[in-house]
Amino acid sequence: MILHTHFKKVETSSQGCHLQDYIKAKYTELVDILGDPEEMRPTSGKISTCWTFESTGGEIVTLYDWKMTDEYMADLMSIVKFRKLEFYNWHVAAKNYSAASQFMWWLNGKLDLLKIKPIFERNCK
User: Fold this and answer.
1) Domain residues of the chain, as ranges?
2) What is the model's pLDDT at position 4?
3) 125 DSSP assignment
4) Per residue in 41-80, pLDDT tens?
5) What's the pTM value of the predicted model, to 2 decimals?
6) Neighbours of 95 (CB within 10 A)
7) What are the C-alpha distances in Å from 28 to residues 8, 16, 42, 52, 56?
8) Which tens digits make up the pLDDT trace of 12-22?
9) Mapped to the 3 state alphabet, what secondary structure does 6-50 carry?
10) Among 48, 64, 57, residue whose Cα is nearest residue 14
11) Is the per-residue pLDDT at 120 higher than 50?
12) Rounded Cα–Cα distance for residues 27 and 36 (Å)
């Protein structure tokens, strides 16, 4: 059963979260919905783009890329080029699959609204 959980962007540790699933989206769509990604703290370059959220129930969920850019390995694409990809299978991490699936349900709803918004606006003129 999917609960009507909402998520807010937070700046907190995602320690203890691990990969649960993937969600396919364009970087630009995510920015339109979620705002700019977090400023990345010094890491080994494995993550170049990340958003962290907290559910109304207090669950932490992170949406991120993994080892995609030259921040990780010199012969990979730049962050700019990565963010221009048509789509990417973003990693969804949480402490449990229930939190991850609720987040994906929430985000997919927002992605669906983003896709129909231009059609709705065009038909309402």
Assistant:
1) 7-123
2) 63
3) -
4) 666 889 999 999 999 999 999 999 999 999 999 999 999 9
5) 0.86
6) 16
7) 19, 28, 24, 17, 26
8) 888 889 999 99
9) CEEECCCCCCCCEEEEEEEECHHHHHHHHCCCCCCCCCCCCCCCE
10) 64
11) no
12) 10
pLDDT in tens, 69-101: 999 999 999 999 999 999 999 999 999 999 999
> Which residues 6+ apart lie within 8 Å of 98 measured at CB?
59
Give, in degrees to the nearest 5, the angle at Cα 53 between 99 and 17: 55
Beta carbons of 53 and 103 less than 8 angstroms apart: yes
Determine the Cα–Cα distance for residues 118 and 30; give it in Å rounded to an integer: 16
Residue 8 to residue 61: CA distance in whole angstroms: 10
| CA–CA dist 25, 49 (Å, integer) | 13
Give the CA distances from residue 63 to residues 28, 40, 88, 97, 117, in Å, rounded to whole numbers and listed in that order: 14, 13, 12, 14, 23
Instruction: Judge contact between 90 and 63, C-beta under 8 A.
Output: yes
Whole-angstrom distance, CA of residue 103 vs CA of residue 21: 11
